Amino acid sequence: MSVIYLLITVSIFIAICFFIAFIVAVKSGQYDDDYTPSVRMLFDDETKITAPNINSSTEEKQV
Amino acid sequence: MSEQSCFHCGLTILKNEEIDFDEKKFCCQGCKTVYEIFSLHDLTCYYDFEKSPGATPQDIQGKYDFLDSEAILSKVLEFQEGNTAIVSLNIPHIHCSSCIWILENLNRIQSGISSSQVNFPEKKVRITFDSDQVSLKSIVYMLSSIGYEPYISLENYETGQKNVDRTLTYKLGMAFFCFGNIMLLSFPEYFEIKEFWLDNYKPFFRGLIFILSLPSLLYSASDYYVSAYKSIKSKMLNIDIPIALGIIVMFVRSTFDVVMNYGSGFFDSLTGLIFFMLLGKMFQIKTYSFLSFERDFKSYFPIAVTRINLDASEESVPIYDVEKGNRLLIRNQELIPVDGILISEKAEIDYSFVTGEAVSIEKKSGDKVFAGGKQIGKVIEMEVLFSVSQSYLTQLWSNEIFQKKVLQKHKTITDAISRYFTPILLLIAFAGFGYWIFFDANIAFNVFTAVLIVACPCALALTAPFTFGNILRILGKQKLYLKNALVIEQLAKVDTIVFDKTGTITTIKKSDITYEGVSFSDENLIVLKNVLRASNHPLSRMLYDFLPETKKLKIDDFEEITGKGIVASVENETIQIGSASFVGAPILYESQIEKTALHIKIGGIYCGKYTFKNQYRDGLEKLFFALSEKYQIKVLSGDNDGERANLEAVLPKNTELIFNQKPEQKLEFIRQLQEKGQNVMMVGDGLNDAGALAQSNVGISISENVNVFSPACDAILDASEFSRLDYFLQLSQDSIKIIKMSFVLSLLYNVIGLSFAITGNLLPLVAAIIMPLSTITIVSFVTLMSNFYASRK
C-alpha cells in the first residue's frame, strides 16, 4: 500500500508540469489575441492555382 | 438604374465611371490598381474569403516623408538590431478574414518583409522586415496602395514594448491548481470512515494539503492583505478586511487542527474561497481591446510635420521639435499640430476633430489657425506661434484633472456595506468568545475562529463583481462600451446630465436642408446637381446627396475657389454656387443670423439659397423628456446661440442652455456643478469636450464609428444607440438594486453559518458545503436577475 506515496508524488508532479505549461503559455501572449488564430488556421498555403473556396465561412466578428 | 457594386470595395458603381478589367467591374482607378497588384502576386484569394473586402486607396503623396528621418524611425520601430526591424502598425481598415489573409501574406507583395502577423481585435499588424532591403516608408506606401493605410500618430512616438499585466491570470491559475489538488486530497476525509489504511496515511495527506495551500495563501491572495492593510491605514473599513481576516484565521486554525491532530482543517474551503474570489475579479474585467479610453491629443496628432527652413528647403521634423517662429507646410488632409498664423492666402480648415462641426471654416492670410484643425484643399504655409504643449487645445491636458490618475473617485457599494459588516462581525466573534470562555477555553477559541471563518464575506464580495461583469457584457452587446465596472455604479448615482451640442445631440451625418427663393426648372436642377458632383466641399456633398437623382451632363468649365464657391459652365450657361458675397445675393436673402447656406446663381440671375440646419439625432426629443423627469439636463455648446430658438422648441422647458463655451469653461462648468454636490454625467464627442469628460463623474463619448478615435472617457457609446441613454441609466440603477437583493441573500447564508459557528458545531464538512453553495446561488442569482432587468425595455 505504500505505493500510494509514489502514486501521489507522480500525480502532483504531473499536475505541476501542466501548471508550468499554463504559465508559459500565458507569458508568451497566447491568450492575448483569441480571435486571429481561429481564422488563421483556416488558411491553406493558397496560391491562385490551388485556390480553395472558403467562401464566407468566417463571418465578420464584432469583438 | 441597375445597382452594380465594385468587385474590390463593394461601393455602388456610377455608370459612367465604371472600369472593366479582367471581367470584373470596379468603381474607380484605385480599386482596379489594388486588384492588379493582387493578381500580379497571385493573391486574388483575397476575394474568396469575403465579398468585396477592400478599401479604395487614398492619395498620400508626401504624407509619410517623415519616415525617412532616422530619429523618427527609431521611435516608431518596435525593435531594430542589425538589419532586422519590427514594427507594429495600427490599421483601422482591418475588418474581416480577407484582411488577415492579405496582411499575413505581405511578403509576397514586397520583398524584404520576412513575416507579418495580424492581431485582429487590436487591428494591428506586426511586420518583421529587412531594413537593408526595404524601408518602413516603402512598406507604408505599399500598404496604402492596397487600401490598408496605417494610422501613425504622435502616440506611436513613445512606443516600445508595452507591458501587459498578467498577474491576475497567474494568481488565478495558481489558486485553481491549489484548490483542485486539495479538493482531491481531502476527499477521503469527508467520509470519516474508520479504516485502517486511511488512518495510516492521514498525516501524509494532511501534510501535503498544508503544503499545497501555501502558494494560494501567500501568492494568490496577496492582494487582499495589501488592500486590507491600506484600508486600515486610511481608516476606511472596506470589504477586504474581513476577507483577509477570514483567510488568515482559517489558515491558523486549520494548521493548529492538523498539528494537534484535531481534524483535517479548512484548507479546502480556504483555497476554494480564494479561487472563487479571484474568478469574480477576473469576470469583472472585460476589455475592449479595439477601443481605448485613455486617448489624449497624441492619438490625433501627426508624428511629424514639414518645416520650411530659411533656405527654403523642406524637412520633416518631429512635432515636439517645432518652435515658435518656424514655418510649416500643411498639405491637404493634414492636421495642424500647433497654433499659428496663416501665411498662405487662404485656407479651408475643418475643425470637426475638435468641435464635431462638419462644416469647414475659411481662413485668410494673417488669421490665427488653431491646433487640431485639418486643412482641406491646397497646400498651405503657416508660422508657428506656440509650441505643441502650449497650444490652445493641448493646453487643456496640462489641467490637473489629466495629471492625477484617480484610482477610485468614490466609495463602492460593497465598501459602504462593509463599514457596518466588519464591526458587527468582530462584535459577534468576541461576544461568542466571551460567552464560551466561562465554560471551556478550547470551545471559546473554536467559536471565535469559526465565526470569522464562516462569516468571511465570500458571497458578499462576489456579488458586485459578477453583477457588474454581467451588466458590462450586456451593455457592450448593446454598443455602450464601459471602461470598467466601477462606471456602472457611477452611472447609477448620476443626477445631472450635461450634453454637448455639436456632434453630440446633433449628428454630423445628416443635415436638414431647406430652400428659399425662386423655384428651379427641371433643367436647372439637373445642371445644379451635376456641378455639385464635381465638388468635394462637404456642403456640396451634402447638397448633392439631398437633391434628387438626375442624368449626368458634361461640365465644360469648372473652377472651385476655396472658401468661396464654385463657378462652372454647362451648355454655355454659367452657374455660381457659394457664399452670399461670392454670388452677390440681394440684401433680402442675406441671412439674419449666422447660418450655413449655399447661394445659387444661374445664368447671371440670383435664384435663392439652400440653408443647412443642424439635424438633431433621432429620438432626441423623446429621450430628453424621459430624462428630464429624473435628471437635471443641461446643454453646453461651443457655438454662438444661433440655434437657441430651435433647441428650446425641441427640448423640455427646464433645460439649461449655455452657449459660447470654450473647452476650459466646459470643464469649469462641470466642476462648479460638482461643488454643489451634484453627480454629473457629461456626454460629449469632440476633443474640446475632453476636459469636461475627464472632470465629470461619468464621461460618455458619443462616436459615429467606435473604431475611430474618441477622447479619453469612461464610456464610449455608439451614436446609433444614443436615444437609448435612458435605458442604460435605468439598467445601471437596476444593477445596484440587484446587488442589494443579493446582499440580503448572502447575509442570510452568513446567519445560517454563524448559527453553526456560535454553537461550536462548525465541522470542516459543513464549511466545505456552505461555502460553494452560497457562491453558486449568489452567482446564478445575480446573473439571472441582471439578464431579466436587461431584457425589460
Automatic annotation (TrEMBL), chain A:
Pfam family, one: FixS
Domain of life, source organism: Bacteria
Residue stretches spanning the membrane: 6-26
Stated name of the protein: Cbb3-type cytochrome oxidase assembly protein CcoS
Entry-linked InterPro entries: Cyt_oxidase_maturation_cbb3
Keywords associated with the record: Membrane, Transmembrane, Transmembrane helix
UniProtKB/TrEMBL annotation, chain B:
Record carries keyword Metal-binding: yes
Name of the protein: Heavy metal translocating P-type ATPase metal-binding domain-containing protein
Transport keyword on record: yes
Database matches in CDD domains: HMA
UniProtKB keywords: Cell membrane, Ion transport, Magnesium, Membrane, Metal-binding, Phosphoprotein, Translocase, Transmembrane, Transmembrane helix, Transport
Membrane-spanning segments: 168-187, 207-225, 237-256, 262-280, 420-438, 444-472, 738-759, 765-790
Ranges for domain HMA: 85-151
Topology class, membrane: Multi-pass membrane protein
Pfam families: ATPase-cat_bd, E1-E2_ATPase, HMA, Hydrolase
Similarity section: Belongs to the cation transport ATPase (P-type) (TC 3.A.3) family. Type IB subfamily.
GO biological process: copper ion homeostasis
Native organism: Flavobacterium geliluteum
Assigned GO CC terms: plasma membrane
Predominant localisation class: membrane
GO terms for MF: ATP binding; ATP hydrolysis activity; copper ion binding; P-type divalent copper transporter activity
Subcellular location: Cell membrane
Top-level taxon in the UniProt lineage: Bacteria
